Amino acid sequence: MARKVFVKVTLEVDSAGQMKPLAVTWEDGRVFAVDRVTDARRAVSLKAGGTGMRFTCFIKNKQVYLFYEEPRWFMEAKEAK
Fold first, then answer.
1. Structural domain count, the chain
2. What is the pTM of this model?
3. 13, 55, 58, 81: which has the fewest C-beta neighbours closer than 10 Å?
4. Cα(first)–Cα(last) distance of the chain, in Å?
């Protein structure tokens, strides 16, 4: 089971209100640039629970999901063992 990690997101919002994540700040302060966003849709997090807008992003050539669950952003992280 995964856990929710609430993150800080730098994003661009266009005149139509469309959001485009540009960078994610992880819980330990590391900042990761979003290389590209390939999809955005309402969806649930099957690993960590929760629902909202799910952005399919690529960070360092790895596909990850970034969720906007108003008013916060989160990502899925593996549980510590």
1. 1
2. 0.90
3. 81
4. 11
